[in-house]
Specification:
Pfam families: Sigma70_r2, Sigma70_r4_2. Keywords: Sigma factor, Transcription, Transcription regulation. The protein has about 180 residues and is mostly helical. The protein folds into two domains: about 80 residues, RNA polymerase sigma factor, region 2, helix turn helix motif (Rna Polymerase Sigma Factor, Chain: A, Orthogonal Bundle); about 60 residues, Winged helix-like DNA-binding domain superfamily/Winged helix DNA-binding domain (Arc Repressor Mutant, subunit A, Orthogonal Bundle). The protein is built from eight helices and no strands. About 10% of the residues have low confidence.
Length: about 180
């Protein structure tokens, strides 16, 4: 079954098509959920919630643009909405003047270790870091998504980078 037929069958509420769509995209969307979540369990919950939203909004997909892009956007928005509801994102009035660059060339850290460090970040820092660094959103877009100012977005990103740099430097000291 091709993607267009699969989508049409999902729009009709056919369970077999929904199961196939889940199998086809759950890995990609779980990876997205994992980077925005504190742990695997929370990522699994976010994945489930995202698919529930995708299936409930399937009629809104009109075959304009990438289907994968559409479901990724729904996933990010579902996760962010959940955090906003649970009041994990508090407005911070801090301003960190300059962006902090992390020189990863001289640091030895595995991808799984780095993902662990990102997951350990406080929610507002982790989400801002992921949106900006990993997903390429601008500070303006992030501030609109999170209901904060662009200054808060920049500040949260700088704090996230600072925390990650400290953890990576500590890891490198312990390895040496």
């Amino acid at each position: 079954m091709d993607l267009e037929e699969l989508i049409h069958n999902c729009k009709k509420g056919k369970r077999q098509a929904q199961a196939e769509l889940y199998r086809k995209y759950s890995g990609i969307l779980f990876g997205m959920c994992l980077k925005y979540s504190r742990n695997r369990t929370e990522a699994e919950d976010n994945l489930h919630d995202s698919f529930m939203t995708i299936f409930s909004k399937m009629d809104q997909y009109n075959f304009n643009g990438s289907f994968e892009g559409w479901i990724k956007r729904i996933t990010v928005n579902t996760v962010l909405q959940k955090f906003r509801k649970e009041q994990y994102l508090n407005v911070v009035s801090e301003n960190v003047g300059e962006e902090i660059e992390v020189d990863t060339e001289q640091m030895d850290v595995s991808l799984s270790t780095l993902l662990g460090y990102i997951q350990e970040l406080p929610n507002k820092y982790r989400i801002t870091f992921n949106l900006y660094v990993l997903d390429g959103y601008s500070h303006k877009e992030i501030s609109e998504m999170l209901g904060t100012s662009t200054g808060t977005s920049k500040s949260n990103l700088a704090r996230a980078k600072m925390i990650l740099r400290e953890k990576i430097e500590k890891e490198n000291i312990n390895i040496a």
